Amino acid sequence: MKVLALPFVFTFLFAIVFTACERENSEDVNQDRIYVYYELVYNATQDITYARATFFFGGITGTRLELTEPSQISADGQELTWKPLLAYYETSFAGLKDTLSFEWTDTDENVFINGVSIHEIGFTETIEPIIKGLANELYWSGNALASNETASLYINGPLEEDATPIIQTNTGTNYVLIPANISSELSLGNNNAYLKRNYKPDIQEATSAGGEIHGIYQTAVREVEVVEE
After folding, report:
1. Which residues have a Cβ under 8 Å from the Cβ of 137 and sit 6 or more positions away?
2. How many folded domains does the chain comprise?
3. CATH code of residue 72
4. Residue 127 included in any domain
């Protein structure tokens, strides 16, 4: 079963698909028109933290850029590697690295430094069953949402791998609301679920094109039971 998602969730995913085949060298564009999308992502299942940076010309839907020397991107002094399949830069760290600073030097040797942190989230020790066909609240352990944060719940049935998120955006809340129309579509029995917490502060240093930065914590997968009303 595929749970419903809000349309804006797909903005960045759409940009990935739309621009996947369009790539250019950064030396060929106006450096002040480069938009950077930074991510620091902890995956609890893998116990690995990924630092990623994606460069676009003009904005998030623009052509993706591969950096040209002397342009480079690093995270806490560790150089990010170009990943040609997805057209972004990435490096990884063992375990949880909850704070990090990106440093990007453009081809004109202007330097942009941006820091970000990851805010933890987790399932409670005991997860209450989800009642099919009713609105349900799934509480998490950890702090309530603060400014510039969202929390997302993903639920997959036994044979599914592509759940879309149920999103909580309200500051001060510590639960995800599963609407009745979504719970009615869930598979009875045990389902796999995980949570994501996304912290998106204002970017500190950027070109006139702008950019964004995210600190994301993704929990390990837990089983959630769905029962009849």
Report:
1. 175, 176, 177, 178
2. 2
3. 2.60.40
4. yes
**Whether residue 206 sits in one domain with residue 193:** no
Residue 200 phi/psi, 5° resolution?
-125, 85
Question: Does the residue 1 lie in any domain?
Answer: no
Q: 3 versus 94: which is more confidently predicted? A: 94
For the four alpha carbons of 79, 85, 88 and 91, in that order, the dihedral sign comes to negative
User: Is residue 6 predicted with pLDDT exceeding 60?
Assistant: no
Q: Is the pTM of this model over 0.85?
A: yes
- Model confidence over 98-149: pLDDT tens digits? 999 999 999 999 999 999 999 999 999 999 999 999 999 999 999 999 999 9
Give domain status of residue 2, yes or no. no
Q: Is 9 left (phi over 0), alpha (psi -120 to 50) or beta?
A: alpha
> Beta partners for 195?
153
In whole angstroms, give the CA distance from residue 180 to residue 37: 35
